[in-house]
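Got a spare moment? Tell me how you read both lines of this record:
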Amino acid sequence: MRFSRLFGRTLREDPAEAEIVSHQLLQRGGFIKPLASGIYTQMPLGWRVSKKIMNIFRREMDALGCQEMAMPVINPAEIWQQTGRWDSVGPALVRYHDRNERDMCLAMTHEETLSDILKTELESYKQLPILCYHIQTKVRDEPRPRAGLIRVREFIMKDAYSVHTDQADIDRFYPDMVQAYRNIFNTCDLTTVEVEADSGMMGGSDSH
């Protein structure tokens, strides 16, 4: 397609609300267009870039033996109440009542959904390890959206989940996942520094 036919205009000046360079360039180049605070449309050029990045993730996850799936963004409150995170997550979790007055939420992560699936799908330890991932739109009621696409209310996230027989098997697998992310960053020509981090609401003992 000719550039002259590309939908999404470029800007001569930096948008007033764009404070960091990456945000300025994304809007000036016509990659994204703001709809409201922390909510952006990915224009055709931006979406092409996103699809290429997602395919880099898919290649590395598939090489690990992870299976791609698509879990629903709409979750019933019950599965979040069972884990205690319905109350502990706080206002960042978008909650609502459906027309039948049932408590629902828009999932910002999918541990609860996968746990519910495993109740019926996991019948024997011989099925383990189970390795899966998905790339999906998430929603978070961000109190102060900022930094372009870094802190937003709606975003695309790739998350992976693994279920193992014991801690030793997790410890064997974790370095492989770390290396997969190194490969992803190297493919994107990104220089990174690995540091240990607090896993926060996700739980677990190891996080980078």
Summary: The domain at 56-189 is CATH 3.30.930.10 (BirA Bifunctional Protein; domain 2). The longest strand covers residues 130-139.
